Automatic annotation (TrEMBL):
Its EC number is 2.7.1.39. The lineage of its organism: Bacteria, Pseudomonadati, Pseudomonadota, Alphaproteobacteria, Hyphomicrobiales. Keywords: Amino-acid biosynthesis, ATP-binding, Kinase, Nucleotide-binding, Threonine biosynthesis, Transferase. It comes from Oricola thermophila. This is Homoserine kinase. It is an enzyme of class 2 (transferase). Pfam families: APH. Pathway: Amino-acid biosynthesis; L-threonine biosynthesis; L-threonine from L-aspartate: step 4/5. Residues 27-257 form the Aminoglycoside phosphotransferase domain. GO terms for biological process: threonine biosynthetic process. One of its GO terms (molecular function) is homoserine kinase activity. It catalyses: L-homoserine + ATP = O-phospho-L-homoserine + ADP + H(+).
């Protein structure tokens, strides 16, 4: 459950008094998510999501995240819109945490996405990349190549307990990624965490993206590599070629990939798999026993790392070449 910081009704009423959102009717903590504390807030004018930003979110990055959601929403991307206070600001403080409210997005996330949904994500991701052009603020990706080894150093002593293969394979992956990481790919604003739980659907149609708290400037195709990892593998860790084809074709139809971007897909996908293995391993080690947060399995991403390492041609992802 992701309510690390609880709030009282009195605190919430005082917070809401700076907004034109009507009277508080009810509120409850939202169990899903692992990063921040989220509350669903009902007022006489509608429902909103209130987020209290926790450990991994740097306060200085919040104007980037909130500004980006606003920018994308204004340019036709369906995503939460930060709610403005009467003084014009969107960022406040509640229970000693930075806090903001955003509009509620209709839809549900899919536990078992099908190829049709992968195609929707591919199209939506490409549209988001195009819509992000010209956004005035920038943010470095804080979970990219340079950040992986320090993260690994903090948790590697616990790797053997999970799987004896984890340590040697991660060390070998880090070396290869450090030697081969591509540098000159087209960059822009990326979501960087576009997992199924961050994409809402109404029926088979994508209804919106949430959770922009890893968004940053980086190679656009890295976002696609994250999606390949998050959307196109089955529970037994097998890659689903039909899903890969659907995701990549739909992306490519909206924002055509260059030859360099296509060639970089295997190494970027391997890097993306390592990134999620590392943050999951870190959380696995650091989250206290008995805590209500659902820990995610780092080994799912060891399996994906193996798959990407063995790729010989991008046709294995479903790209026609
Ligand atoms: N704008 C929104 N509209 C509707 N529901 C939302 C919205 N934002 C968040 N939620 C709900 O809150 C849950 C957690 O939100 P979110 O994924 O942003 O949290 P997080 O702690 O940052 O999680 P993550 O583990 O994905 O990084 C979502 O699964 C969704 O149910
Ligand atoms: N989407 C991530 C959690 C947030 O970084 C994961 O599944 O590991």
């Amino acid at each position: 459950m992701a309510v690390y910081t609880d709030i009282t009704e009195a605190e919430l009423r005082a917070f809401l008094s700076d907004y034109d959102v009507g009277e508080l009717q009810s509120y409850r903590g939202i169990a899903e998510g692992v990063e921040n504390s989220n509350f669903l807030v009902h007022t006489t004018t509608g429902q909103f999501i209130l987020t209290l930003y926790e450990k991994r979110v740097n306060r200085d990055d919040l104007p980037f995240f909130l500004g980006l959601m606003q920018y994308l929403a204004e340019r036709g991307v369906s995503c939460p819109l930060p709610v403005h206070r009467r003084d014009g600001g969107t960022l406040g403080e509640l229970a000693g945490r930075p806090a903001a409210m955003v509009t509620f997005l209709e839809g549900i996330w899919l536990r078992r996405p099908m190829p049709v949904h992968c195609a929707e994500v591919g199209r939506g991701l490409a549209e988001m990349h195009l819509a992000g052009e010209g956004f005035g603020l920038t943010r470095r990706n804080s979970l990219t190549l340079e950040d992986w080894r320090p993260l690994w150093e903090k948790s590697k002593d616990h790797a053997d307990a999970l799987d004896p293969a984890l340590r040697p394979e991660t060390e070998a992956s880090l070396e290869r990624l450090e030697a081969e990481w591509p540098r000159d790919l087209p960059e822009g604003v990326i979501h960087a965490d576009l997992f199924p739980d961050n994409v809402f659907f109404l029926g088979d149609s994508l209804s919106g993206f949430i959770d922009f708290y890893f968004a940053c400037n980086d190679a656009l195709v890295y976002d696609l590599a994250v999606c390949l990892n998050a959307w196109c593998f089955e529970r037994d860790h097998a890659f689903n070629l039909t899903k890969g084809r659907a995701l990549l074709a739909a992306y490519n139809a909206t924002r055509p990939l260059s030859d360099a971007e296509i060639a970089a897909l295997p190494i970027l996908s391997m890097g993306a798999a390592l990134r999620f293995m590392l943050t999951r391993l870190y959380d696995w080690v650091m989250t206290p026993e008995g805590s209500l947060v659902v820990k995610k399995d780092p080994l799912e991403y060891l399996a994906r790392m193996r798959f990407h390492k063995a790729i010989r041609s991008v046709t294995e992802y479903g790209l026609d070449r």
